[in-house]
Structure formats: C-alpha cells, structure tokens
Amino acid sequence: MNELKLGLIETRFANIIWNHEPLSSGELAKLAEAELGWKRTTTYTVLKRLCDRGIFQNLQGTVSSILPKDEFYALQSEKFVEETFHGSLPAFLAAFGTRKKLSARELDELQHIIDDMRR
C-alpha cells in the first residue's frame, strides 16, 4: 500500500491524468509543462514511476488509469483511518467533529450514507 502513497507534486500530476484520461503521452507532457512547469523528460520519468506502482498505464502512447481517482482516494482514506484510529470510523468522526462543526447538510449527508449502508 505504501507504493500507492503520492506526494504533493505526484498528486497534482496524477490529477492531470485523471482529469484528462485517456490522453496521449505527448498531450500529457504538454499539460505537465503548462501546469507544473515540467520538461518532457520529467513527465515521462514520473509517469513511469506511477505506472510501475500500478496506478496508471501507458499503452502504445496512450495514458490512462489502472486505479480510478475515486478508488485511489478511498484506499488512502481507509489506510489513514486504519493507521491513525485503529480502523475505527466512529473514532475518526469523533476526532474530526471536535475541531470542525458539521453543518446540518453535512450531517444529513452522513445520515444518508449510514442509512444506505444499513440496507
């Protein structure tokens, strides 16, 4: 799972791919240059690293995700709760709620999620 952890710059790069996929590697290099100020070689180096980690693939010059954005962030969230709160979502929510007041709308959304999970 550690191989799925992304740093800040890797996350920005990954979001470029997720937001534009599928895209050609040349198109990705142009986007990375415009958004991150990267040279083509930097783009290809980081892309290869993320492909080797099983997050993306570059098949015949077309870049796409192996791990969709939603699934990636779900795995990251699960890992955080597991490592920090011994896997207890209620403990996480209790800690979160001590620092940030949830709006009525957010509480309704959480209740809706809980109700869906009970079904």
Protein model, in words:
This protein has 119 residues and is mainly alpha-helical. The protein has helices at residues 8-20, 25-36, 40-52, 69-85, 89-99, 104-118; strands at residues 23-24, 56-59, 62-65. Strands 1-3-2 form a three-stranded antiparallel sheet. A hairpin with a 2-residue loop joins β2 and β3.
Spell out the blueprint of helices and strands:
Layout: H1 8-20, E1 23-24, H2 25-36, H3 40-52, E2 56-59, E3 62-65, H4 69-85, H5 89-99, H6 104-118
Antiparallel strand pairs: 1-3, 2-3
How is the main sheet built? 3 strands, antiparallel
Task: State the oligomer.
Answer: single chain
Helix content: 55-70%
Q: Tell me the β content.
A: 5-15%
Question: Given the helix and strand composition, which structural class is it?
Answer: mainly alpha
One letter per element, helices H and strands E, the order comes to HEHHEEHHH
Q: Specify Rg, calculated over alpha carbons.
A: 18 Å
Low-confidence stretches: none
Number of strands: 3
Average pLDDT works out at 92
Strand order of the largest sheet: 1-3-2
Q: Alpha-carbon distance between the termini?
A: 30 Å
